[in-house]
Design a protein that fits this description.
This protein is about 50% helix and about 15% strand. It has about 210 residues and is an alpha/beta fold.
């Protein structure tokens, strides 16, 4: 978990949750800033698409934008086939510093509130009315992805390219996260002052003769 950028995305493994967009943006941040970046998908199965097929698509998209295979973890591949425990998701939010929600549609962003309450930088789909309303209240960062709006679907066109769009926003997000003192302290504590470091450098010397 020792990444400078750690994103956690808990959701049902369906194309409507647009997992590949989370992988793409995290990859673009890594590619444009050279920050170590990882994403943990706390996924659970859906009848919409075979899990193996969709996970392969997500991995391919992540690698296309700059992630390595080892930068992406699906909890379903770590033994949690039917979903990662809710308590574990909350603990991961405490460790992570980035939450990206490109979901195609949402009625209410409960997971957004959970991620925000644990000090994550929020990136939300501006084209989804419920996410836009909640994000404006929380001071979230907005990007645009395909979405279901009030009775109609919207489809985004990126100029000059989707890759350029992700890289522009990825670089801007990294700058904003760097300038946020609370986020910087949270990341430093997680990476440098973790329990193993405290034991080795502070507690172990007290036990030595």
């Amino acid at each position: 978990m020792g990444a400078e950028i750690l994103a956690v995305y808990p959701a049902r493994l369906t194309t409507g949750k647009q997992f590949e967009k989370v992988a793409a943006l995290t990859g673009a941040i890594k590619a444009t800033t050279e920050k170590t970046s990882k994403v943990v998908f706390c996924d659970f199965p859906s009848a919409d698409i075979p899990s193996g097929v969709y996970k392969a698509m997500i991995r391919m998209e992540g690698k296309k934008y700059g992630l390595d295979e080892t930068d992406m973890l699906f909890t379903s591949d770590a033994g949690y086939k039917d979903g990662f425990p809710r308590k574990g998701v909350f603990e991961l939010f405490t460790l992570s510093n980035l939450f990206v929600c490109p979901s195609y549609s949402e009625s209410f962003g409960l997971t957004v509130l959970e991620a925000g309450s644990r000090g994550n930088f929020l990136v939300l789909n501006e084209a989804v009315p419920a996410l836009k309303e909640l994000g404006e209240t929380l001071g979230a960062y907005f990007m645009r992805w395909d979405a279901r709006n009030f009775g109609y679907d919207t489809h985004e066109k990126y100029l000059p390219s989707e890759k350029a769009y992700y890289e522009e926003h990825g670089s801007r997000i990294a700058d904003l996260m760097r300038e946020d003192r609370s986020l910087r302290a949270k990341t430093m504590i997680r990476n440098r002052y973790h329990p193993q470091w405290i034991f080795k450098n502070q507690l172990l010397p007290l036990l030595e003769p």
